[in-house]
Design a protein that fits this description.
The chain is of the alpha+beta class. It is 31% helix and 24% strand. The strands form 3 sheets. The protein has an 8-stranded mixed sheet with strand order 4-3-2-8-7-1-13-14. Strands 9-10-11-12 form a 4-stranded antiparallel sheet, covered by helices on one side. A hairpin with a 4-residue loop joins strand 11 and strand 12 (302-306). Helix 2 (47-60) packs antiparallel against helix 3. The longest helix has 23 residues, at 20-42. 56% of the residues are buried. Its EC number is 3.4.19.5. GO terms for molecular function: asparaginase activity; beta-aspartyl-peptidase activity. Substrate binds at residues 226-229, 248-251. Pfam families: Asparaginase_2.
């Protein structure tokens, strides 16, 4: 055992013109979340408790795209999704289509622990939340003035916006016809901006138990009912005996590549180390997609990989290593 370790992310794909103030806000939030996780791991909390605790913090802060501050659907509402996985027995829970659950990651854990199922969605998930006494809020709680403005721009561009917090200098590109001039596509259709901000956390505790959790509001101007990679076990989230992984980026590409499970698979079947496995998967399994991921191993290692302009990320290990970054 190499001791505990933790990694956190706030999305892969960052606008190169992102204002310095926004960068510093992101780093402060990631640092705060790392400190929460470090304190929990030092208190010998199991990894599954740690990842839930950290992702709840990310869902509560509107800076990234999960919980409060989630992206808006084409109808101006919020539909959130999340998943969590406990490595030792590969237990998992996932939820989609949430409109009133304050902390989706905690409902995902309840699905894992208090239901006979692994995945609940839409009205069924919210009925289960009521049965479990989960804190519920009005959909308006999740919606920010900034989100409403970015949805308007997305509709004018007739496109999906991945990052709805685009710097003012970049708003000119979000005009009618912008999507048609974009070299980026999703499932063959043009998109105008690539900078998702899903959140996630992976951790391994001092007993070598790995866990992972991921939460998102999805895409700005997405069709109602769209489900991305974040709640899909093996795609956006995975944890087993060897490692824990949380992904972020172009959901459709992550789904096609079953990205999170593939990291564990090449470790198991090819004998690759953690960083080696992450690099292989990012290079070989994304086709033309854009994404990133964070990972921990049962030996207390941390790793990340991305093929985007940057990724909001932070790491800490028991031996004192700590790093928070955005760019390559």
């Amino acid at each position: 055992m190499g001791g505990w370790a933790i990694a956190v992310h706030g999305g892969a794909g960052v606008d190169p013109n992102l204002p310095r103030e926004r960068q510093e806000e992101a780093k402060k939030l990631l640092t705060r979340c790392l400190q929460i996780g470090i304190s929990a791991l030092r208190s010998n909390l199991p990894a599954i408790d740690v990842v839930e605790l950290v992702v709840r913090e990310l869902e509560t802060d509107p800076l990234f795209n999960s919980g409060r501050g989630s992206a808006l659907t084409e109808n101006g509402t919020v539909e959130m999704e999340a998943s969590i996985m406990d490595g030792p027995k590969r237990r998992c829970g996932a939820v989609s289509g949430l409109t009133a659950v304050k902390n989706p990651v905690s409902l995902a854990r309840l699905v894992m622990e208090k239901s006979p199922h692994s995945y609940l969605a839409f009205s069924g998930a919210e009925e289960f939340a009521r049965q479990q006494g989960v804190e519920l809020v009005d959909n308006d709680y999740f919606i920010t003035e900034e989100n409403v403005g970015m949805l308007k721009l997305a509709k004018e561009a007739n496109s999906i916006l991945f990052d709805y917090r685009i710097p003012a200098a970049g708003l000119e590109s979000c005009s009618v016809g912008a999507a048609a001039n974009s070299p980026l596509v999703m499932n063959g259709l043009p998109i105008s901006v690539y900078a998702p901000e899903t959140v996630g956390c992976v951790a391994v505790d001092s007993e070598g138990r790995c866990a992972a959790a991921t939460s998102t509001g999805g895409l700005m101007n997405k069709k109602t009912g769209r489900i991305g990679d974040s709640p899909l076990i093996g795609s956006g989230t995975y944890a087993g005996d060897l490692c824990g992984i949380s992904c972020t980026g172009e959901g459709e590409a992550i789904i096609r590549g079953t990205l999170a499970r593939d990291v564990a698979a090449v470790m198991e079947y090819k004998g690759l180390g953690l960083q080696e496995a992450v690099d292989f998967v990012v290079k070989e399994r994304l086709d033309e997609g854009r994404a990133g991921l964070i990972a921990v191993s049962r030996d207390g290692e941390v790793a990340c990989g991305f093929n985007t302009n940057g990724m909001f990320r932070g790491f800490a290990t028991e031996d004192g290593f700590m790093e928070v970054g955005i760019w390559e």
